[in-house]
Amino acid sequence: MSGSRGPWQVGASRTVYENPWLSLTEHDVTRPDGEPGLYGVVEFANLAIAVLPLFEDGTTVLVGQHRFPQDKYSWEIPEGGGPLDVPPLDSARRELKEETGLEAAQWREILRMDLSNSVTNEEAIGFIATGLTQGEAEPEGTEVLQTRRVPFRTALHEAVSGRITDALTVAMLLRAYYMAREGELDETLAAAMLQR
Predict the structure, then answer these.
(1) Among 77, 81, 191, 92, residue whose Cα is nearest residue 145
(2) pLDDT category of residue 124 using cuts at 50, 70 and 90
(3) What pLDDT is stored for residue 196 in this prediction?
(4) Gap between the Cα atoms of 85 and 47, Å rounded
(5) In what order do the strands lie in the sheet with 59-67?
(6) SS3 at position 16
(7) Is pLDDT above 70 for 34?
């Protein structure tokens, strides 16, 4: 397929790697400066789904797990992949239950973002979950998880200080903080979240 993508002219394209979760497509291009080039794009089979569970007392739940690509331990809000043909909210409900055992009575989409948009088309959708009840977690076979319930401000501090480095978690915590400060959340919940 040939054509253009903005100022890039695209010639031949070929899939050079594919598995059930992602593919790598290599494009022969003419760069904006007129020179020939090669552009690789990672395309994902899923949306990135994130859930910020918020309890009435202003606490949230963080999930800890070892992340294979960087070979390091990471604390994050509940998140995972949602198939493109499944409503994002259904995927969010599943991820929250799988990783924490929590179920929520109220859901609100608060964030859409592109992840690493210079090399991938991966999109993310984030939800706040409230009206929480605790059940049993159902982690996948690839997951060895820990959870910890912390004040929202503790999680926020860990994100802005660099202790939490997962991009989607940082973005969700900052978005929720902004919403609490700007009166976009329930007043009682916002007050509990903002307590020091």
Answers:
(1) 77
(2) very high
(3) 67
(4) 10
(5) 72-76, 59-67, 146-151
(6) strand
(7) yes
Q: Are strands 123-134 and 46-53 parallel, antiparallel or unpaired?
A: parallel
What's the Cα-to-Cα distance from 46 to each of 41, 84, 91, 187, rounded to whole Å?
A: 15, 5, 10, 34
The first and second tokens of residue 96, run together, are 């929250």
Question: Is 60 exceeded by the pLDDT of residue 1?
Answer: no
Contacts (Cβ under 8 Å, ≥6 apart) of 106: 129, 130, 131
- Half-sphere exposure of residue 146: CA atoms within 13 angstroms, side-chain side: 9
Residue 23 CA, chain-centre distance (Å), reads 19
- The pTM (predicted TM-score) of the whole model is 0.91
Order of all β-strands in the sheet with 36-44 = 3-5, 8-18, 22-30, 36-44
Of 95, 93, 64, 97, nearest to 81 (Cα)?
95
Provide the 10 A C-beta neighbour count for residue 150: 16
